[in-house]
Amino acid sequence: MGEKATIYLVGGSQSDDNWSQLVPVLYDIEDIDKIRQHGVAGVLVGTLGGAPQQNVFLGVPLRLMMEEALWLAEAGHAVLQRVTGQDLIHSLEGLHAETLKKWKDEDSAEMGRQLEWKRAKFLQKMKTIRGTNAEAEPCDVIKDRDEQLMKHSIFVETKDISRLAKQYSETVSGLLCQQILAHDKKLRFNYKVYKALRENGYFMSPGARFGGRYVAYPGDPLRYHSHLTVQDARGKEEDIDLLNMINGARLGTSVKKTWVLPGVSSDKEAPDFYSVEWAGFG
Predict the structure, then answer these.
(1) What are phi and psi of 49, to 5 degrees?
(2) Cis (ω within 30 of 0) for the bond into 61?
(3) Which keywords does this chain's UniProt record carry (predicted)?
(4) Which of the residues 90, 102, 225, 236 is marked catalytic?
(5) Residues in the chain with pLDDT < 70?
(6) Is 102 part of the annotated catalytic residue set?
(7) 257 annotated active-site
(8) 96 catalytic residue (yes or no)
(9) Among 8, 194, 202, 217, which one carries the catalytic annotation?
(10) 245: region left, alpha or beta (phi > 0 left; psi from -120 to 50 alpha)
(11) pLDDT digits (tens, 9 = 90+) for 152-186
């Protein structure tokens, strides 16, 4: 289990009718690297607390499509862990004062080490710039203002994984996959499509900006352009809106992508794929 990535399902509540509100995310850089090796890129959505509106340099967490999370768990590359506010409340109820004191002492010791290092660097700088006596005590050189600036510049590490959230077993992770699929017919259809395309070597990303459910790449998205705009899966008996099909085909042709419509039937595991292109366009 240590070699598998941990995907957290956040949002929603404990009730069974809120499975569609869950969002799969990863917080650990090492876990993100693991799933990337299996062909899942995801989308970085983390921003800066001081500038939440900037969207150029995004970082962790990495958000996944639910299909990606289910595929990684089913393939044995990851485990799913659902985290809600109630989980943290139950964990807090069993938290002892000794454990809290231990955590606080660890944090204080780390901040103390950083402060001592900053004081030593400051003294070294003063000796170089101002020729301060090499035997001078820190209290004689470091003024109150300098001390405050150093304290405010101490780096406080944000843990990737909560010390309160319980770790799920692989059995619980498997049950989560079954529950999520059982409560969402549309997701079941789309997961069949996603799984079939992944098994054929395609890398998948969200396709909303190109008018689809996914965009499919023939290899790593950092090296290739996407070739397909894949729509939401639909049952074989469902009607097709011809106007939407024409619009999608025109859009797909204009951005050099094939518009793909997947069809799913209840008596067949593998979906069928139908492609539409706008002939003579452009």
Answers:
(1) -60, -35
(2) yes
(3) Lyase, tRNA processing
(4) 225
(5) 1-2, 12-18, 49-52, 85-96, 130-141, 157-171, 280-282
(6) no
(7) yes
(8) no
(9) 217
(10) alpha
(11) 788 776 665 555 555 555 667 788 888 889 888 89
CATH code of 1-94+164-183, in short, is 3.40.1170.20
Tell me which residue has tokens 């405010």.
152
- As given in the structure block, the two tokens for residue 4 are 């598998």
| Domain spans of the chain, in order of start | 1-94+164-183, 97-152, 185-277
CATH class of 185-277: alpha beta
Secondary structure of the chain in HEC code, one letter for each residue: CCCCEEEEEECCCCCHHHHHHCEEEECCHHHHHHHHCCCCCCEEEECECCECCCCCCCEEEEECCHHHHHHHHHCCCEEEEECCHHHHHHHHHCCCHHHHHHHHHHHHHHHHHHHHHHHHHHHHHHHHHHCCCCCCCHHHHCCHHHHHHHHHCCCCCCCCCCCCCCCCCHHHHHHHHHHHHHCCHHHHHHHHHHHHHHHCCCEEEECHHHCCCEEEECCCCCCCCCCEEECCCEECCCCCCHHHHHHHHHHHHHCCCEEEEEEECCCCCCCEEEEECCCCCC
